[in-house]
K Homology domain-containing protein (Torulaspora globosa), 706 residues
Amino acid sequence: MNVRIFSQFETSIFCDAAFVCRTGRLWRGLDKRFKGIDAEQAIYSIPSDAGDIELVNGGPLKWIYTATGVAEGGYVEPAIWITSELNVKENSLVKFFRTSLDELAEEFDVEIVADRKNEADGYNLYLIGLESQVLTAEAHFRTLLELCQASTDGGPKVFVDYFDLDGYSFIPLVVGVDMANMRHLSRTYRTQVRLPPLISHFSSSEGDERRPQILLSSDVHSLVLAAKKAILATVETSRSSIYYHRLENVSPGKLLFIRKYYTSELKRLIIKYQSFIRVTDSYVEFQAPCSTLLNSVIKVFTINILHQIVEIQVTLHDDHSCTDDMIRAIVSDRECGPILAMKLPGTESQFVLVKNHSLLQVDTATCKTGRPKSNEVMFHLSLILRALPQRSLRQLRAIFELHTDYEEFISGKKNGKVTRIMETIPCLIKLEKFPEDDNLFLILTADNFNDFSSTFFMVLNELPAEESFFIPELYHRPVIGAGGSVIQATMKKYNVFVRFSNSFFLPQNDLSHIRYDNVIIRCPYKNVSTILEAKTELNSLARGYGNTQTRILLRFSPGQYRYMLSFKRGAQMIGEIEKNYSVYIMFPFEEPPNDYHLEIRGSDNPAEAARELIKTCFGIERELKLNKPIKPTDDLYNSIVVPFKHVMQIEVTFSKSTVRLTYEQGNSSLPKAIEILTDYLKSLNLRIVSKEVIVDFIVANGKPLM
């Protein structure tokens, strides 16, 4: 039997106005349900079964209305818009529409309009259409605007290139963990990378076979080409090891709820774990570059999303029924917040509410824990039940979907926690897992609202809350203490559980060095406020131990940073050296400044680790002092920096009156490179006044900070 799902929707209606230019697509006559709109044509997408549509026109753009209502039948893709400015003459704008934007609108099935800004010779351009089409077209739209602006008198030069990916699942490999790859490309290659939307696959355009495109732009042609080569190499390396999993038996109501209300959290998980997540109306699928990351992202998805969503089954006595009008009234009540309702054909006395009950993850950015919503859920449920006929309620049932690793955590040893709750309040609590299911289901049943509400709150208090973060592996043993004495005291003090792991051999790439979370703090939700306190104490213990370590400082230039990542598998070698020598290499998260010192900490072997790092990952550096500063022109990159890197395997960096070459000892191309560079400098009326070859990079054997 097909499940009928009722849900709120919100979309935009774009009315015809006196635009300076338009591409002339998607416009049609107004729907009769739009009362109060004074326009002949508009762009909109409203479900055919939507009734009692509410229109609001409170924004600064009076030609855009917000429409809300209730619809049946699954995900309702909204119509949206994005805007950007363009400072050109009107004749240039008209030409731009005819030569570029008309074609873009045709290809992506969107509309583009322009109206005049208050400032002279300036326009606001709006990209309008269904969400999936607008977000897919956005990168192309902004790139075309950049090119148009550059073509005007005095505009900066822009070079653009692009390439196709085999699928959306490879986009996280381009982005990198916590956007690390994007930062590297922006700084080292001076290139802006525009990506397809991470969540375009949630839209109604599923089945669109258009391959995702990555667009790159820079003011230096050779850097665009170099950035493209670097990204393609990273993707090609990563795709040789891909792990995949699919959650098949998530209910359709939960899947729709996730697609509608968990977009931001899904983006965060995709970026944090460099893993692809796709939610459809039938399943959730995951793809990651290693099994460890795959298991981690599935588990965190389950905790941060599935754990938060509860299905509440409301059953009435057989002589009462739940009409469609009743369900629509429940779902349309904005005071209830995000909510869905499901009905099965043939079960007129029963319906299921889908709602998020808690925000269980800890918000480390604001140092606040998630706001509990259990009281809010019960308040809304009480309002719904009051609207039902008197004495019509037969039973309430809550269904929680949980990760199987937490069965004993939630139930207690020998079901002790569950038994105590059932002995306290008249209710039934069951933990079930069927062979075809990935997850565990906790089912709470009660015959009246008061018992249900009390039990619901007690169950929520036992759900797991957790946070993960990074502490250098070198500090794990002292933080744990002899025989676990220190960590046991910490866990007892804050009533939490702490687990340590190592991340030495998780995937790295040639664009960045990644520090993965390797510590997890977990506790029942009733103690969630102690997670931050426990984390603070663990970090304090780690810092205190780190300050007692012997420190080695290494001279570490921007060229050395690039050389390590590009030519020496430096990101991967760091983990191997840290493990083999029991040290912590404080490798920077982005390209360092010229006077940067790389710090290595350890108790026994930091000097040996430093020598091993220099031997296996560092290049020789040749510093050339010039008679006057050198300017970072486009020609310098096109003629020297990029060719030297890709043809001769020599990194060239410069700062003021210094040019630095970083290369492997014995590089046979060095004499020719020096000759070419010398001739190039002469053409700029520059000459080399001194040379220095650096092979000893150890600056100092630092003492402990304490």
In short: The longest helix spans residues 131-151.
